[in-house]
Structure formats: C-alpha cells, structure tokens
Amino acid sequence: MRAPPRTQTLAVALALALVLLAASPDASAQESSDPKPTNLMCPVMPDEPVDPEISVDHEGTRVWLCCGRCRKKFLEDPTPFLANVPQLAPDAGSGHAHDDDGHGDHDGNGGGSAHAHGDDAHGNDHGGTGHDHATDHGDHPHGPARLVRFLGKLHPIAIHFPIALVLVAALAELLVLVRGPRPLAEATARVNIAAGAAGAVVAAGLGWAAGAFARYPGELASVLGWHRWLGTGSAIVIVAAAVLSELARRREDPKLLLGYRAALLVAALLLGATGFYGGSLVFGPDHLSF
C-alpha cells in the first residue's frame, strides 16, 4: 500500500532534519575555533612575534602581523614582505618552505622563508580584524576595565580640539604683540586658551586610558613613552597658561601676562613634539622623511 503524499513529505523533512543535526556539531566547532597563526613572526618586522588577532587576507591566504601599523604597510604593498610569509611558499603544506635544492623560491612568488611552523598551512577567506596596538591587543577586559579601554579609543578624536584651540590662542596673542592691543584678538586668545585647557585635560586622560591597553613592539614602546609624557606635560603647561591668562587680565599685571605668553609658546612647541611621536606610533618613526 502506498503511503499518502503528506506522510512522504514528513518523512523527507525528518530525514533532512536528522542530516542537519548530525552535521551541526562539526560546523559549530569549526566556527567557534579561531584559526591559529601559521606564520609566527611578523612579515613586516621579522623580529617581532605576530598578534593572533591581527591578520589580513592575501589572495585567499591568511597572513598574521604584529601590529596595526604593519598591517597597514602590508595592505599598501605586500610584495616586499611576501618572502617572509612561510604559508605562501609552494610547499607550505609539508611544514617547510623549501624548494627541491633546499633554497627559497627566487621567482618572486613569495618563497625564501626557512620554515612554516604553523599548525596548518592552508589559507582561508577571512579578512583582517581591524585591530590596532593603540587600543586593543588581544585583551578582553570586563567591567570598569572594559569602559576604560573604550574611552581610550576616543583619544584620537578628542586630542584635535585642544590642539586647534591652543594654536588659535597663540596666533591671537602673536597678533596682539605685532599689531598692538586689540580687544577682539585678546578676547579670542582668552576664550580659546580656557577651552583648550579643559580639552587638554580630557584628551590627556583619554590618552592614559588608551595607553593602558597598548602593546607596541620594539622601538615603538619607547615612542609611546615619549608621546605619553610629552602629552601629559603639554596638558599641564596649557592649564598653567590658562590660569596665568586669567590672573594677568584680572590683576593687570605685566609679569603675569609675560608668564602667560611664555607658557603659551611652550605649550605650542610641546604640542608639536607630542604630535610627532603620535604620528610615529601610527606611521612609523620615519613618517616625515622626504
């Protein structure tokens, strides 16, 4: 006796459900496990170990790097660094990146690396994580620490406001020195240095929050130190300049006015130095080379 169509439909649906259920554990396990780096050293900075959370996709193969700056360089022009990527060698699957005569490939296809020590040597189709040393380096804090890390990510946004305000105040004071007393220029300098002082305190605090989770490799670690302390010093001098500005105008004291203008000049110079080291963290120490 032939089963009714409805019964046949239910049987087919049940069979498909059983197949999907049997396959789902393996699929979920594959999705939940992050791939391990197949290149242990950064191709851009070969002396630095890679960060498992920083990677890019190069022609279907995952390549790991040590920091966001190296990731940016690799994305701009990967050709100079391909020789340092073991998994891009022709026989990467064997665990060694050698050709028949024991030497690296010389045909420009990315050989020349000694070994591929990763757990596997296959590529995949995932892109980079967008991770950067300045705000995230594999740490996953919880509670207040997570909030501090998030606030640190606002530092690059917040820092531009006090820089602009202090420079406008310095230009206004320069105009007064060159052209003589001008109420509008004096008021502009007074308002901008006060606002710049408030912004500098906020930006410096956010900078310390960002630095708490920063892990820069090699020489960039000392660059971070210079950037951090120059930024803190800048904020202190800017606040001092704002205080002297108010005191000089309220007491009409020439000495206080001279001190305010000197502090404003020092603050502008410190901001330039701090910005230089900040740029070095992003683009490298030679970012101003001509």
What does this structure look like?
The protein is elongated. It has a two-stranded antiparallel sheet with strand order 1-2. The chain has helices at residues 5-32, 68-76, 144-152, 155-158, 160-179, 183-211, 220-251, 254-283, and strands spanning 55-58, 61-64. A hairpin with a 2-residue loop joins strand 1 (55-58) and strand 2. It folds into two domains: 35-131, no CATH class; 144-283, Four Helix Bundle (Hemerythrin (Met), subunit A) (Up-down Bundle), CATH 1.20.120. The chain contains eight helices and two strands. It has 290 residues and is mainly alpha-helical.
Q: List the strand order in the largest sheet.
A: 1-2
Structural class: mainly alpha
**What is the beta-strand fraction?**
under 5%
- How many separate domains? 2
Discrete helix count:
8
Mean of the pLDDT scores? 77
Can you give the helix content as a percent range? Answer: 55-70%
For the sheet with most strands, the description reads: 2 strands, antiparallel
Summarize the structure.
The protein is built from eight helices and two strands, in the order αββααααααα. The protein has 290 residues and is mainly α.
Keywords, separated by commas or semicolons:
290 residues, mainly alpha, Four Helix Bundle (Hemerythrin (Met), subunit A), 2 domains, two-stranded antiparallel ribbon, 8 helices, 56% helix, elongated
Give me the secondary-structure topology:
Elements: H1 5-32, E1 55-58, E2 61-64, H2 68-76, H3 144-152, H4 155-158, H5 160-179, H6 183-211, H7 220-251, H8 254-283
Antiparallel strand pairs: 1-2
Helix pairs in contact: 3-6, 5-6, 5-8, 6-7, 7-8
